[in-house]
Amino acid sequence: MTQKLKVTLVKSMIGRPEKHRKVLRGMGLNKIGKSVVLEDTPSNRGMINKISHLVAAEENTNEVA
């Protein structure tokens, strides 16, 4: 089973560079408080590192069948 990451947008993207906005939209985050569950891949980790000051990330321990 693959690892999952839960990513939540905690700060607004207003006034942020367009690169940061594109990363957020690509992850499916568009409103503060919205969360998405992503696979733990190197590309997703890189996206999270790029916008780490805007999001909160945690390992998802809930198993969904």
Number of domains: 1
Distance between the termini: 11 Å
Order of helices and strands: EHEHE
Query: CATH-wise, what's the superfamily?
Result: Ribosomal protein L30/L7
| CATH architecture annotation name | 2-Layer Sandwich
Q: What is the CATH first-level class name?
A: Alpha Beta
Biggest β-sheet: strands ordered side by side in the sheet: 2-1-3
* Proportion in helices: 25-40%
Count every beta strand, where a strand is a DSSP E run of 2 or more residues. Answer: 3
Strand content: 15-25%
How many strands, what sense, and barrel or not for the largest sheet? 3 strands, antiparallel
Unreliable residue stretches: none
Oligomer: single chain
Q: Indicate the overall shape.
A: globular
CATH topology: Ribosomal Protein L30, Chain: A
Instruction: Label the structural class.
Output: alpha+beta
Q: Give the overall average pLDDT.
A: 91
* Count of helical regions: 2
Rg (C-alpha, Å): 12 Å
Overview in brief:
This protein is 29% helix and 25% strand. It has two helices and three strands; from the N terminus they run E-H-E-H-E.
Molecular structure report:
- The protein is α+β, with helices and mostly antiparallel strands.
- It has one domain: 2-Layer Sandwich (Ribosomal Protein L30, Chain: A), CATH 3.30.1390.
- The protein is built from two helices and three strands; from the N terminus they run βαβαβ.
- It is globular, with a radius of gyration of 12 Å.
Strand and helix map with partners:
Layout: E1 4-9, H1 18-27, E2 35-39, H2 42-50, E3 55-59
Antiparallel strand pairs: 1-2, 1-3
